[in-house]
Sequence to fold (80 residues):
Amino acid sequence: MSNYKIKVDKELINKLKKYHIVMTELEDIYYRSLGKLEELMEKDTKIEGIYFFRCDGEYVGIGNYDTTMPLIHTEQLEKE
Fold:
């Protein structure tokens, strides 16, 4: 016997589908926008393959794909 109190049935799945679709569309917009921002950052800095570095689902700094520069941590970027 299950400990779950909410039954996942066809009706619930159908209600949730529209939210899942919107979430994936928003996620797509976000990642396309982030990619454009990284392209601008690459043009401005002239550092090939520069990108926002993620670890455990969070952005923790800026690096580049061929690791020709050290990772710049978020703490360094947020200092006044």
The first helix runs from residue 10 to 45. DSSP finds two helices and three strands in the chain. The helical segments are 10-45, 74-78. The mean pLDDT is 95.
